[in-house]
Structures are given as C-alpha cells and as structure tokens.
Records
---
Amino acid sequence: MKQPILELKSISKYFPGITALDQVSFDVYSGEVHMLLGENGAGKSTLMKVLCGAYHPEEGEIFYQGKPVKIQNPGDARSLGIAVIFQEFSLVPYLNIAQNIFLGREYSGAIPGTLDHERMHQEAKHWLKELSLDIDTKTLVHTLGVAQQQMVEIAKALSQNAKILVMDEPTAALSDRETTLLFAMIRKLQSEGVAIIYISHRMSEVFSMGDRITVLRDGKKVGSADPASTSPDELVQMMVGRRVDMAYARNYVSNPGKVVLKLSNLCSENGIKDISLEVREGEIVGLAGLVGAGRTEVARATFGVDKISSGKVEVNGKERTGEPFKSVDMGLALIPESRKTEGLALIRSVEENIILSGLKKIFPSTWMNNKKAQQISEDLIRKLRIATPSGKQSAQVLSGGNQQKIVIGKWLTTDSKVFIFDEPTRGIDVGAKAEIFALIYKLVEDGAAVLMISSELSEIVNVCDRAYVMREGRISGMLEKEALNEENVLKLGMADA
Amino acid sequence: MRDSAINLENPLLNSLKRLPGVALMLLVCIVVFSILSSDFLSIPNITNIGVQSTILLMISLPMTMVIMTEGIDMSIGALLTFCGVIAAYFLAQTQNLPLSIFMAIMVGLVVGLLNGAIIVYMKMPPFVVTLGMLGICQSLALIVTDGQTISNVGDTIGLAYNAKLLGIPLPIYFALVSYAIFHALLYHTRFGTYVFAIGGNRDSLKLAGIRVNIYHIGVYALSGIMAGVASILLTARMNSGHPTAAIGMEFDAIAAVIVGGTSFEKGNGWMFGTFLGVITVGILRNGLNLVGVQSSIQVASIGLLVLVALLLDGFKAKV
C-alpha cells in the first residue's frame, strides 16, 4: 500500500491532571476522507491542535510523506500544507471577507508592507464562487450570518491549496443546501488528491462521506473501522464504551393537559412575525426550521428578553409582561442555546450555578444559608448525575453535557412549569444526549410543558409530540402524528420547497 | 420591500441616519457656533482651529489603533509633556535642533515599547500599565526641568509651529501628512490589517502563523513615537519646555477617538472618524472660547460630547 501523507505515531499530550492524548496514532492518505469520531473530551480537538501547531505533544512523532517533521507553530503546519477549518470561528469581525480569507498571507502591493487589495478580492471572489456564495467580498464579516461565516471559514481553508485539510464539525452551522455544496466540494478536493480529516458528530455524514473512521475515547484511540462494514450502533458503542439506545423515541402523549403556554400573533423587534402556538401540560412541542429562521428569537420574545412589538404571550392563562425575571415568577424557564455565555457563570462553582435561579424561592428572606444551599445542590448533582469532583469545582472545566445538566438543574429549584429548550443537545455527545432527554422526559411526566428548539431532524421527529416549523421569521406549519417526519419538517423549513 | 417603503416616506430621516454620528455632531457644532459668533467662520479662525488641533490629531491617530486592539494609552498626555521637556532640555543644552528632535522621539519610542512589552509579554491590563507610566512620565518631566520652565530653546524650533508655506501654517501640513500616513497604515498595510485582527480575534492571527506580539507592541510603540513627534510642535508652540504642558491631554485624545466612532470592542475602528472627532473637539474648544465660556466648563462639554456620541450611535442602531 502507498505511504500515508501524514502519520502521527504514539502522540501523548498532558495537561495538569489530565491525559488529553494517550499514545494516539493516526494517519491519513492523499485523496482520503478520514472521519474522526469521539465524545466531547475524547481528545479530537487536542489532536487537531497538535496538527495545526497550537499544542506541542510531550511524546510521539509526526511523519510527513514518511519523513519525520516537527510542527512547532501554526506557521510550520501551514508550510506543510495543513489547513484547518475551525469550529470556533477564526474570523476577524471588522475585516472584510477577502481580508479574512487572506489573513496572514496577504498579497503585497508595489511597496513592501502594503497590500494588493485588487488581487485578494479577485481570488476571494473565485473561492466564493466555487462555494456558490453570492456575497460581495468587501462585506465586513460581522454583518454575515453564522452559516455564511462558516462558508467564509471554509473558503479561507480552501484558498490555502492545502494538501491536508482538517475540518472540525464544518456542517454544525450550515443549512442542508450549504452542506450539500460543501460535500460536493469535498468530493472534488478528494479527487484532486487532498487528504481530508473530518471531525463529526453526525452519523449520516460519517457514513456518506467517510472512507475510514477512527474513534477516540478518553484520549485513547479505540480503533478504526471501515464504514462499509460497520453500523452506527457499533460506532456509538465504540465511542461511549457502553450500549446506548440511539433511538430516544418516546410514545406520543395521548392526553395532554390544559394549554399552559400560548403565543398569539407574536411579533418582536427581532424579526419574528405573527407567531401563534400552544403548548400543553405533559407535552413536548418542537420548534424546527433552518438556522436563522427565527426560532431562538421566538424563545427570547416569549421569555421577555426581546421586546414584543405586537401580539401576546400567555402563561397559564395570564399575560406575561415586563422583564425576564417576571417570566421566572410566572413559571417560565429558558435554557438558552449558548450555555457558556448565557446559561452559566463559567468561573463560578457548580454549586453556585445550580442554585442561582432558585435563590429567591429557597431563601425568600435574601439571607443565604450556605449549608442548605450546599445540600440542595448536592442533591441535584446526584439526581442529574453531573460528573464533577465536587460542587466546589468551577463550571468551566466540565464537559458540554455536564454543563448543560447544570443549566437544566438551575431551573429544577424553581417552580417552573413551562420549559423552553434552545438546542439542548448542541455540541453534546451521544451518551450525554440520552441523559438530557431522559431529564426532559421526566419533566413532562411530572406535568411540565416543554417547547424544544432543535436543528436535528431526528430529535424533532423522535422526541416531540408535535412540532411547529419556522421559515423566515414565520411559522410555516404544524406537524403531528404520522405527518411528523423528517421529510415534512424539511419541506416546511426550506424556502423553495 | 417594506424597508424601501419606509425610506421613501422619510428621505430626510434616512439620510440623517446614514450620516455617521460624528459628522452630525460636527455639523451641529459648526451651525451653533457660527450663529453665536460672527468670527467663527472667518478664514483666520478656521486656520486657527486646524493649527490648534494638530497636536491632538497626532496623538489621537495612534490612540485609534491602540483602542482598536482593545487597549488604551493613558500615558500619552504625560509622555507628550515629558518628550517636550526632553526636546527643550537638549535644545537649551546644545542648541542642536536635529539632536533634540531625535532625543524626543527616542524617548517616546522607548516609553511606548515599554508600555507594549509589559502589556503583551506580561499580560497586564493596558489601562493599569499605561496609568503607571503616566505617573512615571509626569514625575520625570518635573525632575528634568526641576519644576521650572525651560525657556532658552532658541528661535528655530518656534518656526515649526509658526512658519507658513504658501500662506498656510506648517502644522496644517503636519496634520494632513500624519493623517495620510495613518490612513495608509491602517487600510493598506499588513500592519493595519493585523490591528483590526488583534482586537477582533487575536487567536485568528496566531493560527495564521503571525507573530502577533510584535505587531501588538508595535501599536504602543507607534503611539510613543507620535507623542515624540507631537512634542516638537508642543515645544515650538510654547517656545519653551513646560513640565505640565500637556498633562491630561489623553482625555481629549480618547474623547476624539470615541466621538469618531471607534469602539472599545472587537477591533471596530475608523481612522477618518478620529479625524472628524479631533476637529469636533477642536471646534468645541475654539467655539466655547470665542463665546467666552470658561475652560473649566470646556472639559465638561467634551465629556458631554462623548456621552452624546455614544447615545447617538445607540439610538441610530435602534432606529
């Protein structure tokens, strides 16, 4: 067999108290799409950072076309032809698209140090065209939507004419149409002999795009597999090391209770129009649609974060008005999309975070009893199975799944009866996902009502009793029972379907 | 479709909305002062505003870049004073103008490099580092002059401020050249691109294999150099070296940058906005003088200008 273009041998990387990578070996051939799978914290990101020169491994060797090399800094990685599409955007908000694409390798003008804007715009235009992106390259990046920014990020990596292209969940922020474009691009690059390392959480991608699959767990390589002879269940088992039921499907509730959340013709200054929906006791109602359809905005307007311009929100038959804290008093709970910035005080302890929302109820006199607080939080940590050494641990070191449990736990100390989840499983691994859903099921069994925003069709279809689909700020339809399938949700969500 | 309908109904409001806040305030200042004082729009007075704004412009231009990197340079006023005193000191001692200019700029460069190195390598907050440097520079200026004014600086240096070329005072040329250089630096060089990136997403530069620290320190060094250059004009203007000459000028500079629309976050900067901001501050000071308002109230009016600028931009973002 021919030689791999890049080969990592027995790479180990240690952080204080953690072995991030333990003797991991990994290789990739030209013209191959090598899928990298693993739960959060399995070591995928660390491995990527070793590849791009951001981290230096303590042990192990790297071979490029059979010759040993050292990747000391991002510059070394670049000169080896390694380009990375980062999940966390590496874009500069107040530079335009062309400047971002060529950041760090600008074309010089006639005078040394000056820039050849003309040439950069022309080449940037070429790459945007390749990706069927019809935007002016002079557009400042901060004015673009998340999906467009991701496409610019991809254009940036492509324009480096890399021999090895590393992608970290490139489709996480993309709609289906853009995903299709990206996949076509990957196929093209593959035929041109580019080696592609692709990190993904989505099983369908892993099987449709991958030539080879490698699974990491707890910093170790579990094994490699051939997609043709592996099943999703087997992969999941490799990832989590135990059997998890992939299908979190539940039975539809047959007799939901009274309507507890009712939106009537809701419009907000953030662009949602004429939203009417109902959620009943004991029901999980989905809110589906493409990224940018206005789902998060509905949640924000409902909770009172965004100003309502017309229409109304009723909770338990009473109209909700005023600031978000009044929504909490009325029994409304919002579990936001970006748990790191909106859901958690990251540097504070698990304990402090988890009782934050309930403080008013637990200690009505505002005088805090630390022992009682500790007891309540410890109960919750146990009940939610949050993996943390202690309640005193700062929330930032926990994995995404455990952080999400804290955010949910926060609301369990209040009297909340209506829960709005905004992408509750974003960036969470399969094992933790099942646990999060188990928590949500427990909530509705106890009589709560849940409105769940999700971009994953399988979640909407398998978890929800009914689902509303949004498109361009409006609700384009409501699906239930047999009609609630992935195809229908997609159709209602797409502009030209 | 709906947006365009609104635009048609309200063309005036729409064009006002597109106008940057600083231009709006500049217009208001010009209109108000030309009504209050008949001298305001005279050619000599306009020239005067330009000349008087030159020093402020020279330190506000690099301040724009510093603020774009999510930093601040509190030491600039004290450093300007210190450099001016150095220039005067060497003039008094040697009567050698080129040497004096060189020394002033060198001192500015060294202090700027120190600021940058401490901020970047020791990861200290820019506000605290430069505040410390403010105190040091202020003290050094007093030590060098022994608290007195250095007045035997000769006659040549005064020309830098008072001479005219083609009937236009030299400082105006200095101002325009400085602006042109900084505009080109920010928008047409690698350095400028990286200034945007340091404030906007510092990691992106690191991952692009750029030696970010060098550029970051460079921004503060540039600020120091410009303090040195401006200090020559300061010494020329007073024809002496005074140990408290430009104390507190960082306030005007920061105000001009903020009024000009540069933000403290994400590398959102606008060089021409700073130019307009400096003129607005200059006009405000000049106009209030003409109308006879005490200088103690002038500071408050600049503070007010900053607040109005922020409110205006916030309001426009909402409309």
---
Amino acid sequence: MLQDRTRHVLYLLLAAAIALPFFTGTVIPPTVGPEAKALYKAVEAVPNNKIVILSLEYEAGTLGENLPQTRALMNHLMKSGKRFAIMGFEPIGPVYGQIEADELAAKWHRPYGKYWVNWGYRTAYVQTLKAMAKDVAAAIRTDHRGVPLSKLPVMRGIHSPKDVGLVIDITPSTYYEAWMAFFTGPAKVKMAVAPTAVMVSDIFPYLDSGQMVGMLKGLAGAAQYEALVFGRTSRERGITWMTSVSMTHILIIALIILGNATEIITRRRKAVGGTA
Amino acid sequence: MSDVWTTITVLAGAVSTLAIFSLLYRENPVYRFFEYLFIGLAAGYGLVLTWSDVLYTMWYIPVFQQGAWWWMLAFAAGLLYYTIYIRKLAWMSRLLIGTMMGLSAGAAFQQVATQYAPQIAASFRPLLPPTWLGVAVRGDSPNLTWQQLVNNWVVLAILVSVMAYFFFSFEHRSAVMRKTANLGRWMLMISFGAIFGQTVMARMALAVSRLWFLLVDQRGLAGPGG
C-alpha cells in the first residue's frame, strides 16, 4: 500500500515537472547538433523550381516526437516559401500533417495548392515508390481529395524525381529504408529523416555513408531545428516540450540520488543497530 | 454546429486521455474499454482512409468517371484473395499470393543492394594521417583531421569486434578471438544502453504531448473547443 502511494506521488511529481515550463514560460535553449544543422542547410538549398516531400508515417503513439518535428519543418518550409507535399504510407500521418499545415498556412499566408499539397495516404509502398522513381506526377495523380495534380499550381513543373529537391521521412518505423532503396537511391534525390529517439542509433551509418543529408533526433531534434528557424530562446512547441522532458530528466536523476541516499542511510542505521 | 462538434471531439479526446492515464492508478475496466476503443478507432480510420485517399481517387474515379474500365481487372484479381475461404477454389488465391511474394522477394534484393552497398563502401575509411613528421603518408586525404582519424579507428575497432561476436562459423577458442568478441559484446551493451535511454526520453515526450493537450493546447481543453 505504501509502495502504491509512493508510485502515485512519483507520477504526480512527474506531471508537475512536465507542466511547470508550460506555465512559467521558461525554456532551456537547445544546443544545435550537426545533424539538424545539415538538414536545415539542405532545406535552404532546395531551389524554388523543386518540391520537398514530407513523408509522414506516424500515428497517435509517437505524436510527442513526430508532431513537433513536422511542425518545425513545416514552419521552415513555409517561412522560406518552399513548395512541399505531404504524404504517408500509414493512414493517419497525412491527416495530422494536414491539421498542422492548415494552422501554419494561416500564420505564414501560404495557401493550399499554391505552396503545399497533400498527396494523402498511399498503400503498397514499394510499388508506389518505384512508380514515383519513374514519374512522380503520374504515380500520385491526385491530391487526397481527388483533385488532379495538374490543376494545382504547386505541382507546376513537377514531374520526374529530378524535380524533387529533398525527401524528409518523419517516422517511427523503417519506411526510410524503402525510400532510400526505391526512390532516393535510384533517382539520386537527397534524403533526410526525422525518426523517434529510439531509432537514432540505427540511422547514423546512413549519415556517415552520405545516403542521408541530415536527421532530427526525436523531440530534441525538433527543438534544435526550431532553434535554427526561430532562435534558441523562442517558445515554439518543440523547445517548450523539450524543456519539459529535460525537467523530467532532472527529476528522475534527483529521485535516483534520493533513493540511493535513503538506501545507504537505512543500511548504515541497520548496521549500527546490529552492532549495538 | 461546428463549435458544438469541436467541443464534443475535444471533450472526447480529454476523457479518452484521462481514461488511459487511469492505468497509472491501477488496472480498471474504464482503461480496458478505452484501450479497445483506441484500437478499433485506428482500424476504422485506416479503412476509411484506404477508401477515401486510395481506392476512391486511384480506382473509383478512373473506372466510373473517366471510363478506364481496365482497372476493373485489378478488382477481379484482388477478389482472388477471398477464394481462400472456398476449399475448391483456394488454389486461385495462391496464384496471387505467390505473385506478390515473388514481387516482394525481387524488391528485397534491390533493397539490399541500394541500401547496404553504400554502407559497405563507407566502412572503408582512411586510417593513416595525411602526413607523419613532415612526410606525406596519404596524399588522397589531405584534409583528414586527427579527430576524424581517431573516429575512424574507433569505427574500425567496433565494427571488427561486433562482427567477431556474431561470427559463429568456428568456436571462439583462441584468446584473441574471445577477447575481441567480448569487446564486441561490451560495445553492443553500450549501444543498447543508449537506445534504452532514448526510449525513456521518447515516452516522456508522449506524456508531455498529452498533458499539453489537456492543459495548454488551443485546439484542446484550454482552447475555444474546451
């Protein structure tokens, strides 16, 4: 019973540590890593006659990381006026992307169809990517509402993979491997990935080999990217959320020290009691 | 009407979040109900989007509005999957399954080549400095810094030791092989530790996103919808 209460108190402390930065407005400025910097430069380098593809493969379970990554990248794309398309091989990813893009489009004045487009959810990822590697517009054909891509100004001049400046896979799974194998690799298109934190170790070899030009490492990566777009002390979503995560880390470290100290003191007392 | 609908959806989201969090107190029927609800919703969402984003735009419109009747053949081929439920016709489903497996196997070969070949090439790194005591050693890598050089040696040591750990073609009898494999095991453990740490961070990020929805988000309880 006492252990149960302790557990509940710990959960409450954790909730308080998370919520504190929400209300105080305090942020811990992130230190920007080379992977986020490289991705930022790659986005900046995309010429205006090319399109960026954001492949959103996540569902509700990884929103805490993938959504701030999406937001940070969309903010940069819209701020710099780059054209981009969202799509996904998981059903819900493009839906979340649409919600975020709608909100940011109003902020940056980047209307749908002119600066960005939603290609929607696509099945059969291998076949779709192989078809895209031959002709992007012919493989996709319509947006997520069935409007022919030829009617959307954002798709003007976008046909072959050469017209794609960069592919960014925002993902908690290994779809980035399929993108590399069937689209960016054969068509020689630049690629980056925004994975969940747990996947980061798997992706470093692709950065070393040059198959990827950059990476956003989970929520921390989103915060770093926002630091590049808005400044290190801005109160954007990723930076605020990462501050909360940092607070939980501080709490966990403090609790580990406290737990160990209590255990040591208890043992010493028992030892002293035993000898007396 | 839309405001009412927004309020209902936001409240449903909040109630669902709190119901899932109730597991932190203890296992309970409310948590179970919302867990199954979540799984059902995800499946239902997938089905609807498969129709609206894929079948409607890429099959229904071409066939029924643009006269591309030949796409009906894809529909007929797809139906072959369901012959698996009819014993006499089940062989027809295997035609399709076999074809799809053959296609997948071919794609897998291509994937191995395009995905891993560049990594094999990238694992061959310069291990000697450009110059040593003023004498040119490696003219092909003049810009190699000493940090990169150390990094390359670390990569080589880990690559060889981990490969040694997974090398089962002969028994690890010699001391050199045993120690190299042991080093490989340590390197793997350090790597798994880093992954575990990242996992904890990921779970915290998820908790942050839900509390944000409950306490701050203008599209959540704190906004006009709540």
---
Amino acid sequence: MRVSRRLFIRDGVATVTLGLAAPSFLSAIAQAQGVPSRRLVVIYLGGGNDALNTLISYQDGAYYSRRPSIAIPAGQVLQVGSDAAGNALGLHPRLGGLLNVFNEGRLALVQRTGYPNSSRSHFEATDIWGTANPQSSTGSGWLGRYLDTLPRPLDALAAWNTTGETPRALLSGQSGVPAIPNATSYNYASPNRGAAATQERAAAQAMASSPATGRPHLAFVNATSRGAIETLDRVAQARSYTPTVTYPNNGFGLALRTVAGAIVRGIGSRVYWVETGGFDTHAQQGAAGGAYGNLMGSLGDGLWAFYSDVRNQGLANDTTVIVFSEFGRRISENGSSGTDHGAAGVMMALGGMVRGGLYGTAASLAPGNPTLENNSGDVRHETDFRAVYARLLDQWLGVNSVPILNGDFRAGAPAIF
Amino acid sequence: MAQLNPEIDHLLRRAGFGVSSEDVDVFRDMSPSTAVSYLVDYEGRPDDVDARIGRPDHAQIVSKDLFAPDIDIDDARQRWMFRMIHTRRPLQEKMALFWHNHFATAYSKLVADSGTVQAAKMLAHKPGTLRGPQGQIEIFRKYALGNFRDLLLQVAQDPAMVVWLDGKSNTKGKPQENFGREVMELFTVGVGNHTEADVYAAARVFTGWNLRKSADYRQDEYGDVNAYQEFAYNADEHEASAKTFTFPIYTNGTRTIPARSESEGMQDGVDLITALAIHPETARRLARKFWNFFVSEIQQPDPSFVESTANVYLQNRTEIRPVVRHILTSQWFNNPSMRHARYSWPAEFVVRAIREVGWQGFSLDTVKSPLASMGQQLFEPPNVGGWPLGADWFSTGTMLARTNFAATLAASQKQHLAAALESDGQTPQALLAAMLDRVTPAPLDAAPQQALMAYLVAAGTWTGSGEQLNTRAAGLARLLVGSSEYQLV
C-alpha cells in the first residue's frame, strides 16, 4: 500500500553532483530524452463515464427500453458506421469535434474495455487503472514504471501532471513528476516587485546552488529547489505559447492548451496527465443535452481544438491522446434519471499515427445476453484495458510492455497503431 | 526575537512548532528539563485556544459561510491550524498530528460513504458541540500522550475508522480483512511480525464491530447536523468460533482467543487489541517512529534507543507520556548533531513559518491550497499508511509550493516586519542578524549567507529607510523561510 519514493530520493541526491555542471544541464537531458520524440497525453474522465451514451448502439432496442429518459434518439447520434459484429454506432451529438477526428481516420474507439470483476468503487477502480493490476489498487502506476525505464538522471519534466495531486498511474519508485496544474500560476512568487523580486530570485538560486559540503540532506533539498527554479523557465516557455486555434474557455480546454504549448515549445515531456471530472452522473444526467451533454461538449470541443492545434503545428504524428474512465455505468437508468456505477467502458485514442476506427464489439443490452454481467445490469468487458496499455507501450512509447505491466497483454490488443 | 538558546529552540521545534513571540517570555529563563516538563505535563496549561478564535491579535479565520469547524472540513482544517499556531499545549497538537498520520484516515472516502457534513463531523466534531460521538481528531488530542492500548481501542471503535477500513461490511459470512490487516501491519507490530493467517483470524475477531445510525440520520449531503453514526457491536454478525494467532494473546502465552457466545464476542477484539498493544514489536515499532518524529530522519534509529524506549513503553503499561518524556530528556535527543536532522512536514513548516514571521491579519484559509501543493492536506492522507515522510516530501513542485508560501506569508507581514525590525535596520548586517534571530533555518554556510548579503546590498546605498526595510525585510523573510536550510527542523 505504501509507495516509497526512496529510490527517487537516492537519485535526487545523486543528481546533486551532476546538477552542479552547467545551468543548461537539465535541458540537455531533456533534449537527449525527449526531442524529437513521441508524447502520450492521458486524459482521465473522473467519476465513471457513461460509455453507453458516449458511443451509442442506436439500433439496440434494449438501449431505448432500459434508458427511457436518457437515451439519445437514433436520429441525433453522429453515425460512425458499424463494428465488426454489425452493431450500428454513433457518437453523442455533442461530440462533433471527435467526429471530425474520426472522419480523418485518426480516432480509435475501443469498446468494452475493462477487466474481470470490475470494481464499482471510484477510489479502488481509479487506482486499479493506475496500477494496471486488478488484484491491487496500491503501489506504483504503469506510467510511473514507464518513466523508470528512461535514462538517468531523469529530466525534471519527463512527465507533466496538470492536476494538483499525483495520480496513482504516475507514481513510481524512482521518478518524480512535477504537479503543474496551471502554468500561469507555476511561477516564482515574491513579496516584492521589479528589481527587488528579480534580485530575490537570483539570491534564492544562489542559495540553492550552495554545495552544502558534508551535508548531503541539505544538498538534496538544494538540488530539488534548483530543479524547481530551472523548471520554472521551461514552464514559462510553454505558458507564452500562442495557439493556432481557440480553446474552449474551461478548465479542460485550458489544460489542453497548456499541454499543446509544452509540446510546441519542445519542453520534452513524454507523458502529460490531464483530468476532467463530473462524470459521476447519478441523477438528472440528461440525454443529448443537459449535464451529460455539457460534459460531452467540453470533451469533444477540447479534444478537437487540441488535435487541430497540434496538427497545425506539424506535430500530430508525434502525439497520441488516450481517454479513459475508471468504469462505465449501469445499463438501466435509475430512479433519478441518472446511472449508477457499472463495469466496462470505452477507451479512445487519437493522434496523427493512430489507426482510426471502431474496435471491439458493442454489448447487446437485452437482459440475458452474454455480453452483460451482474445479472445483466452492466456491460461485460471484452478487451482488457492492459492490452491497450501494452499497445501504447510497445508500439507508441517503444518500450517492452511486459515488465511494466507485469505480464504479457499483447494478445488481443486492438491494433490502434 | 524568536531564538532562545539552542537546546530550547531544538526542543520547541520538535515537541512543538517552533518559537513564537508569545513563547519568548515563557521559556526565556527555563532550564531544558523544566521546559520538557512544561511541554509534557501540558494539563497544567489551559486548553483555551478555541476561545481565542476571532481575536484580532491572533491569526485570522475566514470561512466561506458561517464558521462551522464541526461539520465543514475546510473550517475544521482552519481550526486545527489555529490551534497549532496559538495553543498553550504545543506537544498535544504535535502528537495529534503524529497520531493522525499513524492512524491515517481520509475525508474523501468518508464523504463517499456518508456525505460531506457527516464526514467532517466524524473527523472533527468537538464533543459537546453537537449530538453524537467526538470526531477522530479529538481522540488523538485526548490520548495525545495517553495510553496506547486505550487509544487503539478507541480508534478501533471510532466511526471514521470503521468506515475508512470497511468495518461496516465485516460480517460473519464474509469477514472483511481491511481493519484486521492494518491494525497489525500499520498500527502495531508491523510487517514481518504477523502472517496472512493472523490477518484472517483478526478479520473474524472484528466481525460485528459496526455502526448504528441515529434515528434522524439521512444518507445525504445536507442531513441534520445533529444526526450521527456511533459504534455498535452487532452480535448477530459476530463469528463466534475460536481464533488462533501466531503470537501470544494472553499473558500466560495462550495464542487462541476462545470461542465465545455471540453476545460476548466483542471481548475478542478487546483481547486482540490488548495483545497487540503490549507486543514487544509494537513497542519497538513505535520507538522507531518516535525516533523519526522527534530525534532524526537522517540517522537510522540507534538500537539502544529503540530498546530503552520500548522498555519504558512496556514497563509503563503502554503509557505514552513517560515514553515521550524519556525521549526528550535522552542523550540522543539532546545530542547537538540531531538538531535540524528532520525534514519538516508541510503542516509543521507552515505553522512554524507563521509563528516566526508573524500572523497579523493573516487568514488561515489561505494555507489550504499551498498545503495541498506541498503534499499534506490535513484530514486527507494519501492512504492508510499515512504520508510518505522525510525526503519523500520534496519534489520540484512541493518545494516551489513551500517557497511560494514563504512569499505569500512575507508579503502579508511586510509592514509588521519593517516596524518590528526598525531598530535593527541601520546596516544590512544588523538586519540579517535580527532576521536570523526571528526566523530559524538550520545553520547557513558561507555561500548562502553571502547570497543573502548580496540581496540586501543590491538595494543600493543602505539608508535603513522605511521603504528599504519594507522591501528587504520581507524579501529576506521570504528567502530564509523558502531556503533549503529552513526545511530541516
């Protein structure tokens, strides 16, 4: 259960000596490790996204009978064709942005992703998606273990977490990830302005550059402090980016805009972590409009802006976005015109190298169908989420997925690259 | 005017939250041993700190609504910060923080179970304010230096803990291992001193340790604030057969808790808790944790410290007060090499910075977000194992959060600092000396001292004018509180 970052600390101390070299040292590492290279942007939809209303099997009669007030009318879905089993599918009407990407052949929709005995607890399920181990919701995360494979010393910005707290997926024994929720406020605060503030920052940097001879623990904190100051300037570069498109003016849009800035400015981060919440739609979730419609609108518009912006910059082929949530939701709507916690969900991948299309097969929602579980209450998973992780690790990030995932999940992985 | 003498300063950093202007008169002429007694025998000091909330000469509290620290978690956090800053019983609050980490329980899971009001109440309700049991933090205050066996029993029956470690679903048919595992692995003997079979047995021991809702309890966000859940033993769900452990349960060496009738089965848990509390490995594990909390995180626990501390604990029938007194008066604690040999927890850092730099007009609601960025949101530990301590507190993001908090605090105290240091402002050297008397980092090597002087000299010709003092005193406070040296306590 307890995650120790002691190895990271040991490395942190080790970098003290190295870090004293040239001020450009870290960015040189960043270049060696990250530019030009492929990036992965991970988007977590917090709360359990209602996959059945994201990608709609609009010819399934049970979909309408079991969701009388929240089903999307067949005439309103954004058609994306049929899956291998012949289920006609459509995106939520507010996902017009994603339909654009789909029509460019760069959006993969992986249906019914999950794992056996899916946890219905947000807490545990989110952690399971993080550890990539359905038997354990504690310990290091799959992306943290990926970062551990990168050469040492690790660039301070090898990964960039846009949320305030480190998600389980990014936890590791050896690789610290800075939390930069907002590039605009990730700056050096001072009680003063102007020359006094500039002089103060210079003094802070000089203090942190003190060798602290014979005091290794002080030297470790100094190295961390120096790393923060050096990171500041690189984050500021990302902040100064002017995008080629207008991003939606919400938290998700602004986070994606920051990520685009970091990518275009060549910051060199391999992994970006973005979260957007509100998907725990237990009540009054709405159908095409309403609360869920707003969630879809913000998701689709944000992703379309990001995809367009990165493509306009000629960097789409170096960028892959994946979207997941901790679980899907119950098939039948509840008494409050919402949905409770369910099982399998839908994962998405988009980017210039993604082989777009429909992967996996939709569940048949009539009670008793073998694609269901939990007394036909929930959708049974078809593709293990770790198979998607394996594909990303092996084919996109170019590392061996087996040790990172503690097993070989390549079989049955959707061929999204 | 914060520093007294090295022994007392060290004692107050470890057994309290540093030296504030309020403390100087109290401790100025005290011998170290008198100071230890003053801190340890804190019942001699009034517990009047909550009554001082709202006083203009104290740190300020700003609530988004009516201040409701018994049912609103952010208000509860502010009340705790206020207590840590202004208490006359610093060691009691320090130990409450220690136990909060030892029995780490997170608000967010309680919210998922019971809603925000009840979750906050389960953690922070001050007894007597509303109907229902005291909040968990009040148990930690009450037993701060109390009997560990009694504390463990209170915690096992604490509604927050029952929810947190899934006691509600620990039934006869399906024993739930969560509490049974952690009570051994984390709360007492530690890894390597129990087996999986012990975990299964412990789960069965605690079957039926559940909660009962008050009649007016509603499972929603805005239920009656007087509604509550309280501990209740549910005999129908107790698994009554005998349970055998790999370690002695009774002082005669017996390892088996006998089969008992369901109605008497609650005694199983009491027996196990007593056995775990007096287990020699529990004594050693607590001694090692106290070593890190009070003595050093840089040196490994000295084996003779561990043995002597464990012996004090066992000879005093698991009383913590003599243990802490033993530690604070020990050769290890008082060895000068142990000074500044710990990495301050974010809460310690923030409270000490406020106490040293100043709190006039400073609103404690502003520390919530910085503390989260530093990695320690109170009442929200990352998991039941508590926060990753020591060097694990430090990353680029958390260090930046610390330095930026120093800037926020220094900015808020600008004029007060300038006024307080006016007579010391004739020369940059005098200003630095005066600031180092107030704000207490670990000793500064020559290079950082030169950097600080360079910062002061960069102001141009030193006149000691109000404007210069205003700017540079605050800048100096920011640099010192944000320094690496200051993070070590």
